[in-house]
Design brief:
Layout (H helix, E strand, L loop, with lengths): L11 H17 L10 H22 L15 E11 L2 E10 L17 H12 L4 H12 L5 H9 L1 H9 L6 E16 L1 E13 L4 E9 L6 H13 L4 E7 L5 H8 L4 E4 L1 H10 L6 H12 L4 H15 L4 H9 L1 H4 L7 H8 L2 H17 L5 H15 L6 E3 L4 H11 L10
Parallel strand pairs: 3-6, 6-7
Antiparallel strand pairs: 1-2, 3-4, 4-5, 5-8
Helix pairs in contact: 3-16, 4-5, 7-8, 9-12, 10-11, 11-12, 14-17, 15-16
Length: 421
């Protein structure tokens, strides 16, 4: 009867003690922690070779030195040396072989030259905006390993199919709020041009940020483009959206209400405020900000109209374009004033969006420009992928979500409930 050996588990103190012991022994022996002859390289080599030996034992049915337990003709046939790239650099290992060549190791597969963690590291570096050449140079400098630019490209190309699945995955049935935002990316199309890429972000009934998808535009988008995008989102399961927050993109409000007839279209208050500063001199920013606050914190539309008149009277002579900006957006702004304060917080909470946009912008800025839309989309997807280990692009939105959820449930009675998804 085969003895079952229980796996050994160590608590944190035992792990810490073992690590300290290994480090102390390495120092005493004059061994570096990293590098070709370092402690980590040696441990990695030993672990990989031990795992491969265990795999071969399972394949043959007998352990080394137990030839009497053989049940067939196949047997061990020495080893072959192989160098694999790991997260700590190149490691040379001895891969055991069998006589008839039927052994197919799983821990380090035949013809495999990189462990999976290396691929993940390449994807992570790409998500941070490093080019293929920079990643190749990084591996050479940090790990002393040769990873060609073609290899880096092949690794990142692996996510293209994954990206397609992500872009068509089923979505939740109801989103209390969705945000539609634009990101400008430089793409070479004959010549380098600024091209908008649109990110649609939803807030789920569980208070999570859910990136619904990324679409490339050409700057001339209209109602037909937006109808196609929003219909695609609806076909993925989104039956209802309570509030859609966006800027005045041509044809977008009409497309929103066509796809979700009960949706409230709300201009992005934060963008409205920020765009105001574009028309004002820097020395007036504080004063303008103080005069704008009574408008968007007003208790109702009537009070906001009074505050808007006061703002216009004070600033129209100096900054007429700023006043016109608010007047033009007024119809899409005032629905904001009908919402409970908890809903207003969600609409005006920019941390979850701005942190995402900052990651996107950092990545595309580092790349400079992309050869085509597909390359830009791949980079943006890798950033999205890096935000959530599950690959779904989700994260917590707010801490006080329960208060907001109750406000949504009352304001949009019958459309919102914790069990909507």
């Amino acid at each position: 009867m085969t003895e079952i050996i229980e796996p050994v588990t160590l608590d944190e103190d035992e792990k810490q003690a073992l690590a300290q012991q290994l480090v102390a022994q390495a120092k005493a022996a004059g061994i570096d922690l990293v590098g070709p002859d370092g402690l980590l390289t040696g441990l990695t080599k030993q672990v990989l070779e031990t795992a491969l030996d265990e795999e071969l034992t399972e394949h043959l049915g007998y352990a080394p030195g137990e030839r009497d337990a053989k049940t067939g003709k196949n047997e061990r046939n020495g080893t072959r040396t192989k160098t694999v790239l790991t997260e700590i650099g190149p490691v040379e290992i001895d891969v055991p072989r069998d006589r008839d060549g039927s052994f197919e190791p799983a821990i380090v597969r035949k013809r495999q030259r990189r462990l999976n963690g290396v691929d993940e590291l390449v994807l992570s570096l790409t998500a941070r905006g490093l080019t293929t050449g920079e990643i190749s140079a990084h591996f050479a400098e940090v790990y002393g390993a040769s990873v060609s630019k073609d290899t880096v490209s092949r690794i990142t190309d692996k996510v293209v199919a994954e990206m397609g699945e992500w872009q068509t995955r089923p979505l939740d049935e109801v989103y209390p709020v969705i945000f539609i935002d634009a990101l400008v990316v430089k793409v070479r199309d004959g010549q380098v041009t600024n091209k908008p890429f649109y990110v649609v972000i939803g807030v789920t009934t569980r208070g999570e940020r859910d990136i619904l998808g990324i679409w490339a535009g050409d700057g001339g988008e209209g109602a037909k483009f937006w109808l196609n995008v929003l219909t695609e989102i609806k076909n993925r399961g989104v039956g209802d959206v309570c509030i859609a927050v966006c800027d005045g993109l041509k044809g977008l409000p009409e497309a929103i209400t066509t796809v979700w007839e009960l949706a409230q279209v709300q201009t992005c208050v934060i963008h409205l405020i920020r765009n105001t500063f574009r028309y004002a001199a820097r020395q007036d920013w504080d004063a303008v900000a103080r005069d704008l606050k009574p408008i968007y914190t007003a208790v109702n539309a009537e009070q906001a109209e009074v505050r808007m008149d006061e703002f216009a009277e004070k600033w129209v002579a100096k900054y007429p374009a700023a006043v016109k900006l608010w007047r033009s957006a007024w119809a899409e702004f005032i629905p904001f004033l009908d919402y409970d304060v908890e809903i207003r917080k969600i609409i005006c909470t920019t941390n979850a969006i701005e942190s995402l946009n900052a990651r996107y912008r950092r990545a595309v800025r580092a790349r400079g420009h992309f050869p085509n839309d597909a390359a830009a989309l791949k980079c943006l997807y890798l950033v999205t992928r890096s935000l959530d280990p599950t690959g779904r692009g989700r994260a917590r939105w707010v801490i006080r979500w329960k208060a907001a959820l109750n406000a949504f449930a009352i304001t949009f009675e019958g459309r919102i409930s914790p069990s909507s998804n």
